[in-house]
Amino acid sequence: MAVPASRILDLLKLRASIFQTTFNPTGARLGNKILRQRLRGPALAAYYPRRTATFSDLRKLYPGFETYDEFEEDRLEGVMITKSRGKGAPKKKRTAAESKKFQGKKRR
Amino acid sequence: MAQFRAKKLDLGCFVNIMNIRDHTKRKVFEAHEPERQALRYTIRNTSLPQRTRAQAQLQLSQMHCYTRPTQIRNRCIMGGKGRGVFREFRMARYQFRLNALAGNIPGVKKASW
């Protein structure tokens, strides 16, 4: 039994409206797959942990409050040890001329 | 990069210029993703006039490179390394090993079977 094509199209249209799908009988490329994709911006942006409260923030907010910053104390101890051995950081050169003073001296 | 970089650093993990740049790229991509998707849709929609599609193509190509998702790379949050990074732990191989042996990663122990 030959069903007219218009009847089938009407059926498809009705089906699409009932089930809330798209109606595209010719299969024309309309780019709807881009609209269906979920956005991944927020998921990617949450990769690196954000900065919360730090010791420097605490020290700024509560000046008299005593905090013990483990990493900072260890670092300062290391600096004191190297200084006591005489291997601390060199003195900062004040002018450009001072920094260039030893640049041209070649080792023999 | 200067126009997108945050005035105050908001990274809590290892801070490295590469990590800062990657973080900036991720934030910029998040901000511009809807626009990019809209342009991509306009380009791929064959029922629109050729002129609008060509204009959309041009506009998409002229967007800043920081808006592109392909520029984003998963880096190690402990060392900033770009290669050998596990997705589940967000760390590179050696940092993963150090932390796993120290017991800092829950549920990871030495394999033997």
Protein topology:
The complex is a heterodimer of chains A (108) and B (113).
Chain A: H1 5-19, H2 32-36, H3 41-45, H4 55-61, H5 70-85, H6 96-100
Chain B: H1 17-44, H2 50-62, E1 85-86, E2 91-92, H3 93-102
Antiparallel strand pairs in B: 1-2
Helix pairs in contact in B: 1-2
Key features of this structure:
heterodimer; A: 108 residues; mainly alpha; 6 helices; 49% helix; 0% strand; B: 113 residues; Helix Hairpins; 2 domains; two-stranded antiparallel ribbon; elongated; ribosomal protein (chain A); mitochondrion (chain A); ribonucleoprotein (chain A); Ribosomal_mS33 (chain A)
Please give a structural write-up.
The complex is a heterodimer of chains A (108) and B (113). By secondary structure, chain A is mainly α. Helix content of chain A is 49%, strand content 0%. Chain A has a domain at 53-86. Chain A has helices at 5-19, 32-36, 41-45, 55-61, 70-85, 96-100. The termini of chain A are far apart. The model of chain A has no long low-confidence stretch (mean pLDDT 88). With 113 residues, chain B is mainly α. Helix content of chain B is 45%, strand content 4%. Chain B has three helices and two strands; from the N terminus they run H-H-E-E-H. Chain B has helices spanning 17-44, 50-62, 93-102; strands at residues 85-86, 91-92. In chain B, strands 1-2 form a two-stranded antiparallel ribbon. Chain A: Pfam families: MRP-S33. Chain A: Residues 84-94 have a biased composition (Basic residues). Chain A: Residues 82-108 are annotated as: Disordered. Chain A: This is Small ribosomal subunit protein mS33.
Q: What's the shape of chain B? A: elongated
Largest sheet of chain A: none
- Structural Rg of chain A: 36 Å
Which fold name fills CATH's third level, the topology of the largest domain in chain B?
Answer: Helix Hairpins
Helical segment tally of chain A? 6
What is shown here, in short?
The complex is a heterodimer of chains A (108) and B (113). Chain A is mostly helical and 108 residues long.
